[in-house]
Amino acid sequence: MLTPVTKAGDSLFIAGTAYVSHAAVFGRSSLADTDLLLAVLGFTLPFITFRATHVYRSHRGDSALRSAARVIAAWLTAQTLLVLLSRVADGTPLRNQWLLCWTGLAAVGLVLERYVLYALSSSLRSRGLRAIPIAIVAPNAANREILSRIAPQTHSAFVPVLIFDPSSSCDGVLGHVPVVHQMQSFKRLVVEAKLKEIWIIDSPFRPVSVEHLLEAFQHEFINLRILPVLDEDGSLEPSVGDYRGIRLLNLVAAPERGWKVVPKELFDRSFALVAVLILLPLFAVVAITIRCSSPGPVFFRQYRKGINGRVFSIYKFRTMYQRVDKPDAIVQARKNDARVTTIGRFLRRTSLDELPQFFNVLKGDMSVVGPRPHAVEHDEYYKDLVQHYMFRYRIKPGITGLAQVSGYRGETAQVEKMVGRVKLDIYYVQHWTLSLDIKIICLTILKGFVSGNAY
Questions:
Q1: pTM of the prediction?
Q2: pLDDT, tens digit (0-9, with 9 covering 90-100), for 199-216
Q3: By the number of CB atoms within 10 A of the CB, which of 28, 51, 136, 433 ranks highest?
């Protein structure tokens, strides 16, 4: 999305619709002092919520619908805060009508703006007007995954048109892109094509020597850049961060917490508190049913890893008979598992056994959305089988998560299933936004709590 243009358009729509809606409701009368203050707050608050939900962060690859949904969520949050603040002053029916009209008109404008910009951006990209041709320097470029690895990071704004592979023994073609192996040929083709960008695909484990490139192009006005590739399967993405005033390339690092985590913390505690209050009658019914179905406590506690590997006790409704597990051994529940009670089978399939984890959220051990925590014994088993497995514990675990709404829920009998789950968890850790949390919660509700994989 064209960020400066988008910001200017948002400002215009928010301010313009405030004036138009006020004129429509109050007529030609001037703004009262209270209304003027509300107008200023209504213009300021959205850009706080927009920033908190990363509305202006580059989301290449997103559809216009996702972009529109993200800004609408942020806009409605801002207007909800404005309405609450307006209650402090003496309210009038006309003022309420004005705020409602303003909210609706601006929402329509913000959505239309994004669809127009999306269509414009797509049109320019289809004509190649925004795509910048680049040359790629990458040893072992014969690996056919290299272009697919580059594509997600260039976001279609940069198009590889030439590859230099000094490790190859001959020239060739890779996905319609010519590959050369001699520096002299590479330099000639770059100059003839008038390319202005050379990107070096570099791994800290197999660094590329750049001295000969600097020497070859020292008299040319060409940008030489390094695109870090930090791991073999591409699940971890490089990021440049500011750590205590020092700019660093993060190889493996926990997401910055600070003030950025405040919106998530507030959302988690508020959502969990409301959920507990609403679900208390259901809690009572489930508790009575469990006590009547089999002897033993209502709740089941098990140790799980939390943020940065800190161990905590997770709460669940008990779904198994007492003393059926072997000491120091935890086996995943399987289909027709004899350890599971009749009511327990129902609770597992409907995910009702997970509801007590809202208390873990209130305690601060978990989030509403995040990577699902596994039993500590399972962590010990999978951490050496699945690459970057433990990275998923760089943030608080969640009651639901991206992996769960993407089909990776329940038993993970095959390692491949756990690999798929971990990749989605890592993506969530590195791309978290408040709007993504809301989307996952909505998908959890829309897709239902029942799963055929939960035994």
A1: 0.59
A2: 887 765 556 678 888 888
A3: 136
The verdict on 284 and 203 lying in the same domain is no
Q: Are 334 and 299 in contact (CB under 8 A)?
A: no
Spatial CA neighbour of 279 closest among 163, 213, 362: 362
Whether 403 contacts 233, CB under 8 Å? no
Q: Give the residue among 358, 362, 429 at the shortest CA–CA distance from 389.
A: 429
Task: Judge if 280 and 427 occupy the same domain.
Answer: yes
Total number of residues shown for the chain = 455
Per residue in 9-37, pLDDT tens?
888 989 999 889 988 888 766 667 788 88
The residues pairing with 133 across neighbouring beta strands, listed in sequence order, are: 159
Query: Which are the contacts of 396, defined by CB distance < 8 A and separation ≥ 6?
Result: 306, 307, 364, 365, 366, 367, 370
User: Which of residues 59, 93, 126 is at a domain's end?
Assistant: 126
Is 362's pLDDT higher than 50? Answer: yes
Put residue 439 in one of left, alpha, beta given phi > 0 → left and psi -120 to 50 → alpha.
alpha
Same domain, 333 and 437: yes
Quick one: 218 and 264 in the same domain? no
Residue 256: closest CA among 56, 54, 45, 55: 54
| 453 domain residue, yes or no | no
Cβ burial of 245 (10 Å; 0-12, 13-18, 19+) is exposed
Classify the phi-psi angles of 306: left when phi > 0, otherwise alpha if psi is within -120 to 50, otherwise beta: beta
SS3 142: coil
Closest CA to 362 of 257, 259, 261, 265: 265
Q: In the numeric block, which tokens belong to residue 322? A: 């007492």
Maximum pairwise Cα distance, the chain? 84
Amino acid 232: pLDDT: 52
Clarify whether residues 159 and 74 are in a common domain: no
Range of the structural domain that residue 77 is part of: 3-126
